[in-house]
């Protein structure tokens, strides 16, 4: 079931643009966005889930991001 209102991606992008415009205009950072550390922790968890799936569902520990294939 879909939630009412704008899609989450639209809400996230709007918050990012609002925070960016505030800082560009010299206003204090509203601090409502995730930090780089938050993003890194999320990517470690995603990589651990991928590694677990590749290992047949065996539990894994997030350590370092898996290598990304180069094109």
Describe the structure.
The chain is mainly alpha-helical. The chain has helices at about 10-25, 35-55. The longest helix has 19 residues, at about 35-55. It starts with 7 loop residues before the first helix and ends in a 17-residue tail after the last helix.
Which class of secondary structure composition applies to the elements? Answer: mainly alpha
H and E order: HH
The residue ranges in which pLDDT falls below 50 over 5 or more consecutive positions are: none
Please give the radius of gyration in angstroms.
17 Å
Shape: flat
Number of helices: 2
Report how far apart the termini are: 38 Å
**Approximately how much helix is present in the residues?**
40-55%
Number of strands: 0
User: Biggest sheet, open or closed, and with what strands and sense?
Assistant: none
Q: In percent terms, what proportion of residues is strand?
A: under 5%
Mean pLDDT: 81
Features:
mainly alpha; single chain; 71 residues; flat; 2 helices
